Amino acid sequence: MKNRKTFCFGLVTLSLSLLFAPASAAQQPGNPTTQLGVTFPRGVYAITNARLVTVSGPTIENGTVVIRDGKIAEVGANISVPATAQLIDAKGLWVYPGMFDLGTSLGLVEVGSGAPGTVDTTEVGDFNPHVKAIAAINPHSAHIGVTRVDGVTNTLTLPVGGLISGQGAVINLVGTTQSEMAVVPHAALVINYPRAITGGGGGFFPVTQPANLSELVTAANRQVERIRQILRDAEAYGRAHDAYSKDKTLPRPDRNLMLEALVPYVRGGRPVVFRADRESDIRGAIRFAEEMKLKPIILGGDDAWKMTAFLKEKNVPVILTGVLDLPSREDDFYDTLYQNAAKLRQAGVRFAISSGDSGANVRNLPFYAGMAAAYGLPADEALKAVTLYPAQIMNLADRLGSIEIGKIANIVVTDGDLLETRTHVRHLFIDGRQIPLTSRHTDLNDAFKNRR
Amino acid sequence: MRRLTFIHLLMYSVVISGIATATAQAPATSSETLIRNATVLTITRGTLTNTDVLIRNGKIAGVGNNLKASANARVIDGTNKYVMPGIVDCHSHSMLDAINEGSLSVTSMVRTDDVLNPHDVDLYRALAGGVTTLNLLHGSANAIGGLNTVVKVKYGHPVKDFFFPGAMPGIKFALGENPKRSNFILPGQPRRFPATRMGVEEVIREAFSRARDYQKSWDEHRAAVARREKNLIAPRRDLQLEPLVEVLEGKRFVHAHCYRADEILMLIAVANEFGFKIKTFQHALEGYKVAKEIAEHGAGASIFADNWAYKIEAYDAIPYNAAIMTRAGVVVSMNSDSDERARRLNIEAAKAMRYGDVSELEALKMITWNPAFQLGIHGRVGSIETGKDADLAIWNGHPLSVYSRVDTTFVDGEVLFDRERDLTRRQPFLSERQQLEQAEPNRPPQAGPARQTPRGRRPTAQQETDEVAHP
After folding, report:
1. How many CB atoms lie within 10 A of CB A267?
2. Which phi and psi (to 5°) does residue A331 adopt?
3. Chain A residue whose CA is closest to B4
């Protein structure tokens, strides 16, 4: 609980500073609260002469964006540049909102194999709704710098494992502390929707399964029942505490951190991310969410293209993590997963594209979207799939996902199309802070590139 | 061998009969194809716009303007399309039914060409990404692994058609965490020498010492035979040492899996001690730290574009690796080491432009001419030139663009992937699939044996490297 208080406090401080930080303080490069550590100071910036790809509106040629107090203050073709602003002449350059990856564990893993001490994705046990990614995201992970210099400015960082994995956080990829990074510290609950596992799929330790499919289905259903039970317990727990807070003569209910963590989710106040790829699992997860009155988001969604009518009817968004996975079945068409996004878009299903990566490869997010575009998704939709749509799915479209006045100033300036592989990021702003384009990788490059 | 279920067998028969039909319609050897008015990325002769490519008898018969084909030639309008050489993937484990003989530290007696599965559907998926040649490598469990096989992706053909004619024989070496089994210690399994990078060096030195003695005993025997000495007994043939002798004699390429700079230098020193050359350092994630030494040795490097941090020895991997080594004079190729990544090596090549600003031509070479050179097949593939094999792909946009995809892939002049054809086959395929699903053996059982999972693996990011998926 100490952690929660700290983070709530951190969030409040952050929001307050966003709202009320005096412009003069923000303009001081020597602001002591930000200069120590790795949180760069905020400033007033004007990016001029740029091609502004606003994403939410039309693209503006020769436009100007003004950044102030961490926010986008002005956007347009005929903007007067504030006298105090640091100018960034972006002639010939393109300006985009930062990309947002909803399916990562960025910050929870440093080295995936051989260094278990650096892996904090997976708790022991089936039910861990009270564990929170924000408690363990390492702001000083090399992955943060490596990822943002390629234009990814936000992630939904998720725990994995078990049945209820824990709670994910939406973060800006800048900050000395987790609370400085947090956009929404407790953004979503993760449930691995139980599936009847019918095979191990090879690898070094092939899983041998009991041979009886109906047993497997029963086992999966039993797990669903266990999830149902704990969610019902959380509802009851919430009611009991509400009642007690109104009437202290009632017996005082004990505190249970696990159930307490679930209350905002069972009341539909925050989204629940269901990991599910197969048609039957996606359907099962959505029906379960409906029954329990949860706010579901599907993460994975390999089979989503098969069930677009259902997804549209239920208005459930899908975060596609498999665009660059091999098709799950041998007889799938070669482009089954490349064109998944295009089919969802055609059917009017809400979707976003994610790398689905634990951290190191999140920087490749634009190429996941680009591949979907090569296979039928219109290019502007591919761009939205990694900017505005993720923001909308997380109910953060008032703060992230496009270049609009009032949004968090997460801005990427490039020398070409954001999703194109050969494009370079030339300037980067996160939370209104100008971020140097350096990382562990540029440091090593600088150290060795001229060795003779 | 994995078991094939009823449905899979039926599907294979569908695929194979489909390809057989297509082959019957357009016989490979006698046919002509003229690609008209395309942008041709020749690699060796620049980028030619509004240019024709003539394919005849499996070879490139001409590259130029207003080429004439015979009356029954297939003509493809290449307007707004790009023709590039088929991609050569210098590190693959596709179509291998087994990847590691991991019980010994020196397994130069085992051969990947014994375990090729020509029906692996990932071959078709690679063709759809413009890949026409694969270097099928043994895994990286051993300091000295098994022999590799270079194949053309002749999906739909019998396995004998896959072998790349004239490719240099090769062998896999491995350094670092994998041969010392850092991440694969199983409970109850005894440790195996080597368990350190020190031991890896000595395993290789010891093997080549034996190989030298073996070579000498044969040389002495042959000399004695030449002197017509009587009552000679030939040395006992040693299948483990024979390939190493071929390495010593420059008849077999060494493809050495490695990560760290120190182990790269170690192997160069061992190779110099015994007088052989390393042809490619595979992965060479820290190659950029010793690019000078790699270039001086004359070795190439075949690498991931940007994969890093999936294990400790990959923590210093940087995406500038390709650019730094290229500028130091190392011949660099981008490989997949993954059936997934093989499908988009064009994007991997373009990353060398994103990180380190290599030229467009250099980036293209990293998936064509450079890997062909690393496999000793650059006389036949890797560029578009008259007389070379007609292994090429037509793209609907520039192949280094993320927005581009392959329309048609040719191997030896034969169309083995065609997007239009693929699309038109889908409806009948789906109907057939539906019928099969209704068939009694494929009904979802109330009880009974669960279906085996097909080979189509779903690699996670961590599984994509050979040492994790196929240790």
Report:
1. 14
2. -95, 10
3. A330
Q: Which of A209, A325, A451 sits opposite B340 (nearest CB)?
A: A325
Alpha helices, H only, B57-130: 121-127
Report the C-alpha gap between A386 and A147 in whole angstroms: 14
Kindly report each contact of residues B184-192 with a partner whose C-beta sits within 8 Å and lies 24 or more positions away, as own/partner: B184/A204, B184/B141, B184/B471, B192/B104, B192/B105
Each residue's pLDDT tens digit, B197-242: 999 999 999 999 999 999 999 999 999 999 999 999 999 999 999 9
Q: Which chain B residues are closer than 8 Å to A209 by Cβ?
A: 450
Q: Are B384 and B104 in contact (CB under 8 A)?
A: no
Contacts of A324 in chain B (CB under 8 A): 340, 344
Residues A321-376: tens digit of each pLDDT: 999 999 989 999 999 999 999 999 999 999 999 999 999 999 999 999 999 999 99
Report yes or no: B182 and A114 within 8 Å, Cβ to Cβ.
Answer: yes
The type of residue at A435 is I
Average pLDDT over residues B43-48: 98
Helices (H) and strands (E) in chain A, counts: 14, 16
Q: Which residues lie below 8 Å from residue A440, measured CB to CB, with a gap of 6+?
A: A142, A145, A146, B318
Minimal Cβ distance to A419: which of B313, B402, B454:
B402
Q: A109 - beta bridge partners? A: A119
Residue B5 DSSP symbol: P
Number of H helices, E strands in chain B: 12, 17
Enter the DSSP assignment of A113: B
Measured in whole angstroms, how far is the alpha carbon of residue B60 from the centre of its chain? 22
Burial class (CB within 10 angstroms; exposed 0-12, middle 13-18, buried 19+) of B451? middle
Average pLDDT of the segment spanning B63-70:
96
Query: How many residues make up chain A in this entry?
Result: 452
Distance CA B313, CA B318 (A): 12
User: Which residue pairs from B442-448 have beta carbons closer than 8 angstroms and sit at least 24 positions apart in sequence?
Assistant: B442/B6, B442/B7, B444/A213, B445/A213, B445/A214, B446/A214, B447/A212, B447/A213, B447/A214, B447/A215, B448/A211, B448/A212, B448/A213
Minimal-distance CA residue of chain A relative to B346:
A421
Question: Whole-angstrom distance between the N-terminal and C-terminal Cα of chain A?
Answer: 55
Decide: B291 and B328 in contact? Cβ < 8 Å. Answer: yes
ipTM (interface predicted TM)? 0.91
Alpha helices for B178-331 (secondary structure H):
197-226, 242-248, 261-274, 291-297, 321-327
pTM of the model: 0.90
Closest listed residue to residue A343, CA positions, set A301, A386, A289: A301
Cβ A363 vs Cβ A397: under 8 Å = no
Q: What's the sign of the alpha-carbon dihedral A29, A34, A37, A40? A: negative
Question: A330 to chain B: nearest residue by CA?
Answer: B456
**Cα–Cα distance between B288 and B292 in angstroms, integer?**
8
| Both structure tokens of B378 | 């650059």
B127 three-state secondary structure = helix
Interface test with chain B among A326, A328, A371, by most B beta carbons within 10 Å: A326
Residue (of A94, A68, A69) closest to A79 by Cα position: A68
Residues in chain B: 471
DSSP letter at B161?
Answer: G
Cα dihedral across residues B15, B21, B25, B29: positive or negative: positive
Residues 6 or more apart whose Cβ sits within 8 Å of residue A445: B288, B318, B320, B324, B355, B356
